[in-house]
Amino acid sequence: MDKVNLGQELSRLDSCWDPKVVGELNDHQVKIAKFEGEFVWHRHEREDELFLVLEGAFDMQFRDRCVTVSQGEFIIVPRGVEHCPRADREARVLLFEPAGTVKTGDRER
Amino acid sequence: MDKVNLGQELSRLDSCWDPKVVGELNDHQVKIAKFEGEFVWHRHEREDELFLVLEGAFDMQFRDRCVTVSQGEFIIVPRGVEHCPRADREARVLLFEPAGTVKTGDRER
């Protein structure tokens, strides 16, 4: 029952697209990650994913549109929906998803 | 797949201790709430709860200690653990918990 300071945890992150688990509850995990550049197109068969922007902004690309998510905003990507995050400049993001979610979903990276 | 702006949602909150659902994923809900004053001692038999402070600070009281959680910090209260949030000044908090979680747990309010 210790608290977690997101700023401290963010300062310890090294590489981009490499989420770190900072909390667990029920069957879910809280992760933080740095986004910069483009990730990979993928989808999750069984997991909805939440992305909350802590600093900066990124584009969540879908096959038919793109949503820019900025600091203080979140987006939920439903299971089965193909997506690919992209950030022109470094963004810092909190993720919430079921434990065991593979970051590339149905795609190897 | 629309994004949610937490600032906008927070500006629409009226009363304290009255969480509003702003997102749903898997079997969980994202809620926001204003905390001011003292809530009620309670516990949840089956649900872990996450509290992330968006603005201000609050004290999460446990029977044996108290943890002050400030902006940019979160705390996870495990199932079964009695707790009572308290805020001397208004705090704005994001909650993450299973859908159907009763805010007062085992206690009427």
What topology does this entry show?
The structure is a homodimer of 109-residue chains.
Chain A: E1 4-5, H1 6-11, E2 20-25, E3 28-38, E4 49-55, E5 57-62, E6 66-70, E7 73-77, E8 83-98
Antiparallel strand pairs in A: 2-3, 3-8, 4-7, 4-8, 5-6, 5-8
Describe the structure concisely.
The first copy, chain A, is mainly beta and 109 residues long.
Would you mind describing this structure in some detail?
Chain A is mainly β and 109 residues long. Chain A has one domain: Jelly Rolls (Sandwich), CATH 2.60.120. Chain A has one helix and eight strands; from the N terminus they run E-H-E-E-E-E-E-E-E. In chain A, strands 2, 3, 4, 5, 6, 7 and 8 form a seven-stranded antiparallel beta sheet that branches. In chain A, a hairpin with a 2-residue loop joins strand 2 (20-25) and strand 3. The model of chain A has no long low-confidence stretch (mean pLDDT 95). The interface between A and B is medium-sized, with 33 and 32 residues. Strand 1 of chain A pairs antiparallel with strand 7 (73-77) of chain B.
Note the total helix count of chain A: 1
- Percent strand of chain A equals over 45%
Instruction: Return the CATH topology of chain A.
Output: Jelly Rolls
Largest sheet of chain A: 7 strands, antiparallel
Task: Report the mean per-residue pLDDT of chain A as an integer.
Answer: 95
Q: What's the total count of β strands of chain A?
A: 8
What separation lies between the terminal Cα atoms of chain A?
Answer: 35 Å
Top-tier CATH class of chain A:
Mainly Beta
The CATH architecture category of chain A equals: Sandwich
CATH superfamily of chain A: Jelly Rolls
SSE order of chain A in H/E notation? EHEEEEEEE
**Envelope shape of chain A:** globular
Query: Can you give the helix content of chain A as a percent range?
Result: under 10%
Integer-rounded radius of gyration of chain A: 13 Å
Q: pLDDT under 50 segments of chain A (min length 5)?
A: none
Structural class of chain A: mainly beta
